Structure formats: structure tokens, C-alpha cells
Amino acid sequence: MQVMLFRILNDDVACTLQPLHLPNRIERDKLKDFMQTDQQFHLTKAFDQISIFSQGILVMSRNLLGLIDLDVKNWIEGKMRKELLKRFENKLKYFFLSSNVGLEELETNVQKSKTFILSQLHLMECFQDLLHMHGTRVWEEEFTCFLKHCALKECDDYVSWRKHDSIVMHVQVNDFSNARTFLGHLLRQILQLTNPSRSMYIEPMSGWFDSEGRELLGLRFFDLLESCVGPIGMTSLDSLLAFIIMEMLEHSLNSLKSLLHVRCLEELQQLDTALGPASSLPLLGRSSYKQMAKFVDTLWEPWVESLACIGQLQLLRCLISFKLKLACKVRISYNIFIFGESLLG
């Protein structure tokens, strides 16, 4: 039944539910196009079909009262929750399947995701009026559950991948090529654009730029992302980044310890033998020191790459934190304004 309800109010019908900007003046020749009679006809027809379901639910609730313990309203709400969560899982991740994208394409995908997410909200608002259910609350709870589930699933997949391939290079630690969720695909494309080997973060501009000075990712993208997934989505993405940073730090420290315990000790023993006893001057000390210096350079190379990846993720967290703080300030100011207006009114 819940599938049939969503089929009646499909994505094409949902587009007509988008908020429409009303101009102050409309030309007479364009009035017919502005009215969108065809879209309104299909929307009214869909509402009529859903009203039939609503009447049937009301009749069932009245006739079975006291005879059968059947809570039709809660049963439909539970089914619609499952269908809404399924639509989020099946639809959103397909916007970010491309392997190599630029900033323009990434912003387009985020905008498409935002349109789809809002369309589901408008659908649930319609169901709220027609089926007498808390549609907005259902949408908020299921969308929050979906985002948290994405972050948790990516963390679990990341841990299992690390255990499966224990000998992993530092540059591959933040690889999300096999991501299976919406947040995983989104993070993969963000990490590609902000790769330390191909981009440079400029703090005054709060963004990443390439060698030619073109912006790869900046505050404009995070503004769009926050409007798409909201504070819950930004928080889920931040928690996923924090988890990856923790795993990378642990992996980097363990790798450095293993290198120091095995290779470095052997090289130090060879250097000690080549330099001779401490009471005498070494004959070929310069060549031995050069060899040790080269070894240190090769030893630090993967460590530097790992620190660069950690810095990349931490910079992303800083911008996410900035957007969250800004969003909270705006909402608090708006709530204070509304509260003041209510007191004056």
C-alpha cells in the first residue's frame, strides 16, 4: 500500500509541489503558462486517489474498533517509514557514482540530491494532510536515521577493509573507491578534489586551489552541502572524518614504530660499526653519515604523506565546523526574533 501511495505522488508530481515564487505582476499573455493547468490537474487527480485511501482507512478504523486490535494508522506510518528510507538509500548514492568529477559537476550532483530530498519532504507533507499522520516528523526521523546509518556503515567497512589488507600504504588509507553509501560516495569525490598532491589549501580564501589558481573546493560548496543535508548530515560527515583521522593516526604511529624498531636499528648498528669505537676518529665517517641521511629521507617519505592526508581531513572538518557554527547562529537569531515578535504581538 505504501508503495502505491508513493507511486501516486511520484517524482513528476512532486516537482509541482515545489515552492513557487510569485511575482508582483504577470503579463496577460503569460498567465496561462504561469497557471500550469496540466500540472495542477495531475496533482489534483493524485490527491483524489489518495483521499480514497484516506477514507478507507477511516472506515476501517471505525468498523474494527473493539473487534480487532488493528492500528491501521500506525501500521501505515511504519510502512511509509520503510519505503521512505528505501528511497533515500536507492536514489541518493547514484548522484555520486562518477569516479573523476570537477567542482561544477559535484555541485550539480549536490543540487540534484537537494531537490530529491526536498521533494520527499513535500510528499510527506501532503501525506500529513491527507492521511492525518505526522509526515514532517517521519521525514526528519528517517532522514536522520539514513545519514547516521551511512556514516556507521562506512566506518564498519573501513575497519573491515583495514583488517583485510593490513599491509596498506599511507596514500591509500583514505581511499573510498568501494564506498557503498551516499556519504561514502560524496566523501570520495571531496577527497579527490582536495588531494594534497594535486591541490593547495589557501587559508585566507578558505578553499583548495590548483597550480593555476582555479578553485577546486571552497565555502560555496559547503554552503550548498549544508542546505542539502542539513546540520545532521554535516555532523555525520564530520564524525566519519574524525573516525578516519583516528584510524590513520593509529596506523601511521604503528608503521613508524615498526620502521624504527627494525630498519632503523639495523642501520644504526651498521653506522656504529662503520664509525668504529668512540675513542677514535672514523676514517670514512662522511660516507657513512651520507648513507644514514638518505635512509632517514626514505623513512620519512610515507610518514609525510600520511600527515598530509590527515591534514587534508582535518581542514575539511574545520570548514564543516565553521558551517555548523554559522548555521546555529543564524537559527538562534531567527528564533530570538520570532520569540520577540510573539511577545510584542
UniProtKB/TrEMBL annotation:
One Pfam family this sequence matches: Strumpellin
Top-level taxon of origin: Eukaryota
Gene Ontology BP terms: actin filament polymerization; endosome fission; endosome organization; regulation of actin nucleation
InterPro entries: WASH_strumpellin (IPR019393)
One cellular component (GO) term of this entry: WASH complex
Family, per entry: Belongs to the strumpellin family.
The protein's name in its UniProt record: Uncharacterized protein
